[in-house]
Amino acid sequence: MSATISRSIRPLLRPAVRITPPTTTPSRFFRSTSVTMGVHNLKTKQDFYKVIAGEEQVQLSENTLSPKKVVVLDCFATWCGPCKAIAPQFVKWSDEEAYKDIHFVKIDVDEVPDLSQELGIRAMPTFMIFHNGDKAEEIVGANPPAIKKALDKYAALL
């Protein structure tokens, strides 16, 4: 009896093949992004110094970055609520055309504690802007207007 039931159910268990007629979709406009756009995670102290020094081509664990004169560093912690809150905005800024000549990088202060101590990170998030290899500005806390103002200031220099 169970064999009869299983044979009768078997056709129902086979995936149904759906045939959909081809449709024409309008072409979508897209914007290509360069490899350097986006936020890059720095995993080591050496990666940080390579990016800040503006070496010709920086080979990080993720990909290769071309040299830039302005670097914005986000010092964050995974357990930090304000860090999590501002992270999407930081990514959005990194993809904006106005800031295409700025490197956006971040470090997890718990993963690179020696660098965090060397930079004097006492609160998270801390944003540091480096211009031509030198620390030019520091913004402590998740303060989008202050960060945007600093980004605009340094984007105008490029």
Automatic annotation (TrEMBL):
SUPFAM superfamilies according to UniProt: Thioredoxin-like (SSF52833)
Sorted UniProt keywords: Disulfide bond
Pfam families for the chain: Thioredoxin (PF00085)
InterPro entries: Thioredoxin-like_sf, Thioredoxin_CS, Thioredoxin_domain
First and last residue of the signal peptide: none
Gene3D superfamilies: Glutaredoxin (3.40.30.10)
Domain annotation Thioredoxin: ranges: 21-156
Family as reported in the entry's similarity comment: Belongs to the thioredoxin family.
Protein name: Thioredoxin
